[in-house]
Known about the structure:
Elements: H1 2-25, H2 29-34, E1 40-44, H3 45-53, E2 58-61, E3 64-67, E4 83-89, E5 95-100, E6 110-116, E7 122-129, E8 144-147, E9 150-159, E10 162-170, E11 180-186, E12 195-205, E13 208-220, E14 226-241, E15 244-247
Antiparallel strand pairs: 1-4, 2-3, 4-5, 5-6, 6-7, 8-9, 9-10, 10-11, 11-12, 12-13, 13-14, 14-15
Amino acid sequence: MKPLLTYILALLIVGLFYQCNTNATLKTAAEKEYGFEADSGYILKKQAIDILAQAGYEYYSNKNPKVRDSVDLNAADIKLTDTIGKFYKLKNGNYLACIEDIIHTDRPAVKVLTELDKSGKVLRSEGYFSGMYFCCWINKYEGFRKYGSYFSLSTCSTGSAYCSESTHLFKAITPQNSGIYSFIFSGWCPSLETSCQLTSIMEIKNDTVTMHYKNEQIKEDEDGKTQIIKTEKFDIKYINQENQWIALDSTKIREFPI
């Protein structure tokens, strides 16, 4: 009886060892090289540089389009353990990644949206341009999100005492469009006496987006303390037409210095 039990135990150990090795072998190159093993996750500096090195996107300088074809690495101030981007797994098994372009410091603030296949090869890339810096991003990855079947990527506009956020919604990788205003702060409201801040909550139903906006006028006293002196709430619906989100009535949003 003992020899039989020993034989069965040996078979179980061999089977378990074989299964573990088989699972490891079945990992795709993207899972091995970039750690894309879950439905979503984060991208560290080393993986980001590898992806950016093969991700070409059009860069417009003085209105002349240029395609990036070289790597002039200058990211020594970023640690290897720093998170540079974020990814989501697509239904077809590919991956959609958003990475800050950390290897071209001569360019303005750019987020690079890329689609990679299971082998880790970049299939397509698009550059999403912001102002002088990412004033509307808390960190390097939170501005790339997923809402149901839609992905969203935020770009920022900057100015003197000014920051705004535009949300770009898409189901597949697409060039940068005008986006939907989701946040605006201006130190100079139309009244020229107060600052104003526009915040929003986004609601998506089918292919219609409703932005629930809140407009606050903020006044600063002589001691530097601020108080909200007026609040207004309003909604704007947006529909998608040829990859552009169009406001059904943009009157209220146009009252802001945008």
